[in-house]
Design brief:
This protein is mostly helical. The chain contains 20 helices and 12 strands. A hairpin with a 4-residue loop joins strand 8 and strand 9. The longest helix has 22 residues. This is RagB/SusD domain-containing protein. It is found in: Cell outer membrane.
Amino acid sequence: MNTNIKLLFATGILTLAVGCTDLDVPVASQYTTYPSSEIAVQGKLANIYFKMRDCFGRRYMEAQALSSDEETAVAYNGGWVDGFAYAHPSLHDYTYEDATLDWMSVLGEGTVTANEVINSGADVKYVAPARAMRAFFEFIMMDCWGDAPIIDKTVTGIDIRDRQPRADVARYIEKELLAIIPDLPTEVNGDNYGKPSKYMAEALLAKLYINWPVYTAASVDQYDAATAKNEKLDDCIKICDDIIKSGKFNLGSMAYRFKFAPNNSDLKVEDFIYAMPYDTYTATGMQYGRSHSYKDVKSMNPSYYGMNLSNSGGGYMTMTPEFASLFNLPGDERNNCIIGDTVHVYNPTTLLPTSKVALDKSGNPLVLTKSITLIKQDETLDVGDNLTGWRQGYRPIKFFVTNDDFKNGRNQSNDLPIFRYADILLEKAEAITRGGTPTNGETAQSLFNQIRSYVKAPTIDHNPTLQEIYEERGREFFDENWRRNDMIRFGHFEDEYFPHYKGFPGANFDKTHRIFPIQKKDFDVNPRWKQNAGY
């Protein structure tokens, strides 16, 4: 992890943080006076930048991946049922007490903390990044819960204690981002790694624009991907062009797999526009390996990561058969980021499979099945706590695990990209395909083929269809928390994929479940709020 980020994070821990999860209090108490010295402001900013670290490293990831077709929950003879916290998102059958949804209050804390800087009289070089983070937190709340509080006392005619219509929140975010982009730094590495930049704000704005008809629909269940019209397509293309023309980003400075490797911050990944930094000791919370690894990985000698691991894998998330089938392009380097069928031991330096076959605890070749066989067809999603159960489902190894990290509470040092240059290229291709105006001689085909070329997958000889773009986004951005967002926009969230099958106990296909229920603890402190429709 970048040394400057480590120091900034340490400063943030040492600085007194005034958090607030209760929005149902007098407005005046939301904005406390904070010391205006540079070190105090920097400490407060650190608290804002990294507010979502724990959630991104586990709970936010679980909510996004399990509610999409990327991954499903599995249990082992009752282990990891955990009150159906993981099965519920897999079935779109959430309840307002599910632990995987307990992070909305963190976003509220983040916006309130940002306001302390914004309203402190600090220099614009501090205020603009704080506003960018506030807009980012608002975006996540709007994306995941629909109507959201606009926690900004300068917006007239609203009460910050109340949730505002989703479309109004979208327009507020747009206005905020357009206002602050000129004041944000243009540097994305060095001291500004992991902090908001002009391009982070533009990437967020592009994401807002490509989803505009989703967020401005009359209600969440009334968005129809087949008929929706997007008035912001050319705006999306314009923003993408500004990022592309900056010359600060590229796809192919390193192989795909290294972008997500342990200590990837040291590699200065030029595809990363904005990332969440992690470190196994100083910035903990990244635990993808805990949920994704083969359950009995500790007993393997060596594990398929090329070394013995000091901790077991939780193994309660595995790829759905439908999503695993996407990785079928010949020569595609991304295929090496999942394991299935006969598993080979990987070289932890090259991050490529060797000729050595990985062995399970019985000394037999480890063979993972694409299909998943449950003990019985119910919402426990139980596969059995034995060798047969453990081998159910392919598994992602994109965020590669090393024992140096895993031995420390299974906390990894892989930084998590939130916005990537690859996303900008595919968003522009999508905007053109949906009817936006091509610019700079670029076509949807040429943009799409930039992605295919750098991962050494076959290029296409035609402009891609929306379905091809949707599938390519699945291959490119899996495990990066955008699949649910994509599925809703492309009209696939109500598709059938394991175990979200029609007739399966608990499987829900109600379109209101495109957003999550407000979690119980958020109702406890905000009794003015109403539960989302459908819950």
